[in-house]
Amino acid sequence: MLKTKDTVLEIDNIVKEFPVGKNGKMTACNKVSLCFEKGKTLGIIGESGCGKSTLMKIVMQLEKPTSGQILYHGEDITKLKGEKLRQHRRNIQMVFQDPTTAFNPKMKVKDIICEPLLNFGLIKKGEKEEVAKKYLEMVELPAEFMDRYPHNMSGGQRQRIGIARALVLDPEVLILDESTSALDVSIQKNIIDLINKIQKERNLTIGFVCHDIALVTETSHTVAVMYLGNIVEILPGHKLSKLAMHPYTKALMSAVFDLNMDFSQPIEEINNDISNKIDNINACPFRDRCDCAIELCSRRMPGLKKVSEGHYVACHLDFTV
Ligand SMILES: Nc1ncnc2c1ncn2[C@@H]1O[C@H](COP(=O)(O)OP(=O)(O)OP(=O)(O)O)[C@@H](O)[C@H]1O
Questions:
Q1: Has UniProt tagged this entry with the keyword ATP-binding (predicted)?
Q2: CATH code of the domain occupying 7-91+172-271+308-313
Q3: Tell me, what's the ipTM?
Q4: What global pTM score does this model have?
Q5: Residue of 45, 54, 56 to mutate, ligand 1, most atoms within 8 A of C-beta
């Protein structure tokens, strides 16, 4: 995935290893490179344990990478420390899966929304009501909600407060890590519509991590497919079902879109034992589950190759024939 003049944030060759046992290690992200474009949504999909959240935590500076860089407008933010890092945090904000756990239950909505601004000394206490009203309006909640406590709200309403709080510092990039997964389908749709609306209004750049492939397809301009720490395919979101080429992406898609699927049969589970698989850097990580695997797949890791504009696949199969 190539950097363009509109690239805001670049994940550059990120490796994240976690220690396992006494001397072992597990690679949660293996040389991942991705670009976030101004005003666009980059969706990241893949089964549980493939490394999506770890990657987003590195982007958010909640985890340090083992190697690689995160470039925000060309500056490596993994090297930032102290006040520079604190100030940088305003640029990239995150909405968590369950905002309830992130909120102080003793704080009123207006305090929750305004806390980041007060922390940065950007408003005075007397301005809280005015700011809370503006942001409640943005997330389509009535102004009276400012005096409520989080436990007096529904899950969807709480998530709207989470979005308001994340946007109050006017970040350029918003990371949504399974931010709608805990909600009912109809509420999910409302939240996604709201995020799409805010994205257009603010030209917001979004990173969208989600299990729901249909939702990602609908929302993301570009989708990156992750398997055992590796990006195996990158393609335009709205063409995901039509253009998917990597055998893993196709398997994911068929599990979602095949209406003739026999649901009485168990869906094949991901092998979560990542540790001994991913560290074989001389092989394709998907080879053991791939019906199309050839001899080369066991001895060489395929790199991402461009197959058409905005479409990259990491597979030894020849897609030109
Ligand atoms: N702090 C940690 N220490 C050790 N291993 C970790 C740590 N954090 C994550 N992992 C491992 O790294 C791998 C990737 O985890 P991660 O949470 O990034 O996956 P994910 O794709 O976001 O999964 P999910 O969708 O279930 O949240 C997993 O095997 C996980 O067990």
A1: yes
A2: 3.40.50.300
A3: 0.96
A4: 0.90
A5: 54
